[in-house]
Amino acid sequence: MLDVSGLTVGFGSTTALEAIDLTVAAGELVALSGEPGAGKTALIRSVAGDLPPASGRIHVGGQALSDGAQAAERLGVAVVWQELALCDNLDVAGNLLLGRETRRLMQSAGRFHAAAAAMLDQVGIALPDTGALAGTLPGGQRRLLALAMALSREPRLLLLDEPTAALGVAETRQLESLMRRLCDSGVAVLLATRDIGQMFRVADRMVVLRKGRVVATLDPRNSHPDDVAALLAGQRPDASARQQLTRLHGLADSLALADPASGLSMIVAALAAALGVQRKDVQIAPADATAAGGRVTASGGQWTVPVMVGGGGNAAATITVARESAEPPSADEMDLLVLYAGYAGAAIERQEAEAAGREAAALRRTRELQRQFLSRLSHELRTPLTAIRGYASSLATPDIDWDEPSQQRFLERIAAESARLGRLVDDLLDFSAIESGVMRLQRDWCELELVVEAAVACLPPADATAVSVEVAAELPPVWADHDRLEQVFVNLLANAIRHNPPGTRVRVAAAAGEEGVVLIAVSDNGSGFPDELRATPFDASARPRARTAGAGVGLSITRGIVTAHGGTIALSTGAGGTTFEIELPIEDTAASSADPALSGADHG
Amino acid sequence: MAEVRNTLALLIEDDPNIVDMIRSNLSVRGFDTVVSADGSQALRLLETEAPDIVLLDLMLPETDGMELCREIRERSSVAVIVVSARGGERDKVNALNMGADDYMTKPFSVEELLARITANLRRTRTPDGVPAGPETIIAGEVEIDLANQRVTRSGEAVHLTPTEFALLRELALNRGKLLSHAHLLRRVWGPGYQTETEYVRVYVRRLRAKLEDEDGEQLILTAPRAGYRFAAE
Fold first, then answer.
1. Domain extents for chain A?
2. pTM (2 d.p.)
3. Which of residues 409-438 of A touch B (CB under 8 A)?
4. Is the Cβ pair B18, A387 closer than 8 Å?
5. Which one of A257, A303, A577, B121 has the fewest beta carbons within 10 angstroms of its own beta carbon?
6. pLDDT tens digits for A477-510?
7. Burial of A288 (0-12, 13-18, 19+ CB in 10 A)
8. Of B14, B25, B62, which is closest to A394 when you measure between CB atoms?
9. Assigned CATH topology for domain A241-358
10. pLDDT digits (tens, 9 = 90+) for A34-65
11. Mind telling me how many Å the CA of A425 is from chain B's nearest CA?
């Protein structure tokens, strides 16, 4: 729509514009920016036909612009001047219709104002009162009125000279949206403005004028306001500084989202990019004592910057940058190193906080398990005690004469519960002996077949029939504590019967393993070991409250005894039923060389 | 003529010896007993048998005793004595917060068991005849109908357990007077409870939650370390 080429304009001896090339297409909004005196108004005036060019040419809609404002107007150029050309002593309608008054309109005030309102409506500008004097209108409405007057000529090219100077935010936004609407309807707009933000809000292109010359044409989508500000002030826009800034902003954003563990490597990568070196040339390592309290140091082609954490004066880590040359860092590079070291310090702090949180959670979990274990233990000990005390106090109550069978039953149960309590106490003593590593073994040469038979004999007769024993012929005796090994088998057999449905078969198989080792498997065809306990089958504190009596320490004791013999026990994960596999050294060399009663408890 | 039946105790306990011991002592004194070792059966028995008192062992296999206590309280005003192997203050307060009327630590003697059962039954049973004193007490939006054991707040019925009502009655009948913890424990819970200070604290909190607005006027005033006072007229 507008095509300016080689335009040079002078006022007297000064040159206002020099060799300006400028185009504005239909529907395009080109912002013209520059310091006062840069030539914005001179260019607008030239295009408006108000200032004759010394050389060069101006085409509007393909037609050359000859001298004179009226010639420009004929080509479809309309202008809203910074100094508004309004008649303050006429009302809104009077200004709008100035020079177009017909006799018909003048005869009726109603018709006159209706025509003005229709004009406003057509250009899409709302002015509430067409009867208000232009001189009394607020600034924003005066601009709108001037714009309406310009638009009423249905221009193809609209020139706006700082239209929002001295307007408030809301009025500025209103005018800006009007400008965009005009462009969208196909009008070419040339907007002279000093508001950099406004250019970025509305312009399709930005032309920067300085001292009468076009110094840059920018696309707002690929530019930064800082660049425009630099150009206006006559400086080269410093793209590298802005890239650094952009990189830092990006880093800050990704650090906020990233897992703390990956933060440091992101920082190192960003620093490498910022310094323009290879990723591998930047290293971060825990600080040694020599790095304490230092600043950036450079020696032999290596820069070192300490990473400080918290308020202390000691570095938690150092970042080193390997350089090809031995040059010390420039002031900018120094700043970058310190800045990125600051980021690294914050990242380390975050990592440490995270780790501390995990530790605290693990500790809470352990405490909770211990609390549950003690709670269950308390229940297991107090339950038989409650029966004993309850029965005993029942017998002692003076107001009741219990009959003979009741007395007998009470006494029997007191005896049975006392025995149960005794076993529990034994278990707990064993457990604590194992836990504290002081289990004592009375070793002798033991025939495994006899040990297992003794264990089966401890079971109630009905349970004993469910157990089958297969011991390989000529299995050598083992150097072990007979009673403790018997306890291992009693525990495993009793568990297999107690935790499985009636009719479950239990099998004990013993055979020689590798040299010097006996393998024993205790397996059943029952319902299988509970999934939730599989991870830590021997851990007493991980036990939930079971329906069956017991402190839940049986398997812990079992493992403790096997371990004390220098053997291992494992829950095998075969399908169906439960199998415990025990590996027992025939002669525990570590223990037998010393005191036979030595404990070898090694528990996790 | 209403059906006359023995006092019925619901025993929620999984240890057969403790069940036998308690049942023997209750039946010889004219109680009937129903027993359950698991939560859902206990809730069914609560409904079908309508027991007069519940003895609840907190540590049951596959049942969260505290949760069961809360569910019982949700369904019924029956006296609940919680039996637990844990004697800590916090466990006691937790159980009372879940709606227990009383808390007994294992092991216990038969005398203690019977004394607690008697005290809880006395409190939760409607007293015979009309008690002396006024029939209704009005305090702000709260109206206490002593004769019919009913409480309304802004005209709407408020559900109180017998223990809660007994405490409110004691406070309201002595309006404006400072009542010590020991006095309230003796009068509401019975002789032998004087040292169970946390019982009063928990139950006053329960009453406040049901009868007072958070930022409204207080109905029950605390005299720190001394006791409580019902707001004067």
1. 2-237, 241-358, 435-592
2. 0.52
3. 409-410, 413, 416-417
4. yes
5. A257
6. 999 999 889 989 998 998 888 888 888 899 999 9
7. exposed
8. B25
9. Beta-Lactamase (3.30.450)
10. 888 888 888 888 888 888 888 888 888 888 88
11. 16
